[in-house]
Amino acid sequence: QPKAQYFKKVLxxxxxxxxxLLGWTPxxxxxxxxxxxxxxxxxxxxxxxKFNLGGxxxxxxxxxxxxxxxxxxxxxxxxxxTEAFKMTVDDVAYIPLHQxxxxxxxxxxxxxxQRADNQFMIYRTIVK
Length: 128
Known about the structure:
Layout: H1 3-10, H2 32-37, H3 59-70, H4 74-90, E1 110-111, E2 126-127
Antiparallel strand pairs: 1-2
Helix pairs in contact: 3-4
């Protein structure tokens, strides 16, 4: 079904699903993004956890996520991100059943960069 109908059904307030498939690639590639939107405790006012369809909520993960948002020391921030994701794994916040692979086709005479976000950048394409 179209995305608009699907999200109307599975997002709050209805949460009408017991099983779902959700693809998520933040445009920023920042690990903070899924911590906020997929793993954050839902709060209507802040928008946190809007796509947390399983209802997972750990206030300690949320507190750490808030600190990650303002940490400027990259090493400290990376350590906090690692800790936050470890907490969600230990809690079994999600049981991932499928990870979609990226599949592209091209001729041998074409060189193209396959990015992790599955975006095609025409200006990075070389025809030999």
